[in-house]
Amino acid sequence: MPSHLSPGVREQLALALRGTLRTARQGAALTQDEMARRIGLAPSTYGRLERGTMAPGPATLRQLCRALCLSLDALVGPECAAAVDRASPPPRRPARRRRSSAPAPEVLPLLLMRRGTPLALVVDVE
């Protein structure tokens, strides 16, 4: 867990996950290995999250919520969710792309795949 969360919040978060994570995963009909693969963790690390011996960071919490289709409040409770939101840095905005000074092409070639068969399609932009 990131060091900017107090030890009390980390402990509270681990306990909250211990109570809900296994139930939510089983409700989604996923094994521990499948869940670990979906969120990019080793199965042993995911097991530690379920047992409550380890608290995840904010990014891992968001991945858990996405994989289980749950809100952070539903997963860890409103108190822990508020503490995690306060401790999380604001999301970074993507850098703006500069517009190219080159003229736009008149025709955009697109390649579509359907059932493994490439289909060529040309779209006229004008």
From TrEMBL:
SMART domains: HTH_XRE (SM00530). Residues 82-106 are annotated as: Disordered. InterPro entries: Cro/C1-type_HTH, Lambda_DNA-bd_dom_sf. It comes from Melittangium boletus DSM 14713. Residues 21-75 form the HTH cro/C1-type domain. This is Transcriptional regulator. Pfam families: HTH_3 (PF01381). PROSITE patterns: HTH_CROC1. One of its GO terms (molecular function) is DNA binding.
